[in-house]
Amino acid sequence: MDTYAAPLAAIDIGGTKIAAALVDGDGTLLARTQRPTPAALDEDSVLGAVVDALDELAAAPGWSEVRALGVGSAGPVDISRGTVSPVNIPGWRGFPIVDRLSGHPAVKGLPVVLAGDGIAIAAAEHRFGAARPYDNVLCMVVSTGVGGGLVLNGELHTGTTGNAGHIGHITVDLDGDPCPCGSRGCVEQLASGTAIARYALRSGWRPAAEDASAVAVAAAARAGDPIALAAYHRAARALAAGIAATATLVELDAVVIGGGVAQVGALLLDPLRDHLRTYAALPFAAGIAVHRAELGTDAGLVGAAAVAAHALSH
Ligand SMILES: [Zn+2]
């Protein structure tokens, strides 16, 4: 296993929670804390929650040995400017998170390294998870949204601003539904948990209980409900088209898929493999390995630490 010498500090900023951890060289969390994201509040209140989590972490044994702080954030991010504008945190638009954290007393002197959450997940899976054997791999999260990050030629591929690999906003349906990103027919509009539930309801599926989530659609699909099955097949097809486009463009060895929706396993991944055979047709793009992600809910923290470690070694 690829390890780094000292513990690293990591923060993972999302629309619902802010988590912070001290992460050991093998990816183990030595200390961990989290807060709800006060997403509806102003920029200082959101920063207050981040700093509060960081201060708690700074009191943990081992903080004095920390060599860098990795910050993973929901996007869009701009790693060239050190700013973040998470879609689900409206109070932060072009928010200078790197500057603000660099000036915090517990952090002073440590390098602060920012990454988008898709890149963080890719870093975690490449260093410690299912992407380890591969030099060219797309790591995806299929959840309420669809995101991802790329490893190309064995290195994280961030792009100039850190948003490369954002497969959720590749168009796979030319005349599809408008997407909040400004485009239409994006992978996310067909394959996110929200999209799966929306499609099932629109097609006439009625949940047995009040629960109209993608999890409830999955349960119905397993029980043989044809509409629920069609909703997952449609999501799998959209994902396959997006993956095939990526594989054709950059030549992938594998794709690693995590997130809540991917936890349904074969219900999504079997049709996805079938559709990949259709869409990834050229010999160099065919035969991509499809794996489930190996890191769980803390992949964002492990990945933020991995990105910081990576920055220290370059
Ligand atoms: Zn979009």
Small-molecule components bound: zinc ion
- Work out the count of structural domains: 2
Structural class: alpha/beta
* Biggest sheet descriptor: 5 strands, mixed
Q: What is the CATH superfamily classification of the largest domain?
A: ATPase, nucleotide binding domain
Number of strands: 12
The helix/strand series, from N terminus to C terminus, equals EEEHEEEHEHEEEHHHHEHEH
Mean pLDDT: 94
Shape: globular
Radius of gyration (CA) equals 19 Å
Q: Under the CATH scheme, which class of the largest domain?
A: Alpha Beta
Can you tell me about this structure?
This protein is an alpha/beta fold and about 325 residues long. It has two domains: about 10-120 and about 300-310, Nucleotidyltransferase, domain 5; about 135-295, Nucleotidyltransferase, domain 5 (2-Layer Sandwich), CATH 3.30.420. It is about 35% helix and about 20% strand. It contains nine helices and twelve strands. It has helices at about 45-60, 95-100, 115-130, 185-190, 195-200, 215-220, 225-250, 265-280, 300-310, and strands spanning about 10-15, 15-25, 30-35, 70-75, 75-80, 85, 110-115, 135-140, 145-150, 155, 255-260, 290. The strands form three sheets. Strands 3-2-1-4-7 form a five-stranded mixed β-sheet, sandwiched between helices. A five-stranded mixed β-sheet has the order 10-9-8-11-12, sandwiched between helices. The longest helix is centred in the C-terminal third of the chain and has 25 residues, at about 225-250. The two termini are about 20 Å apart. The model has no long low-confidence stretch (mean pLDDT about 95). Zinc ion binds near residues 169, 181, 186 and 188.
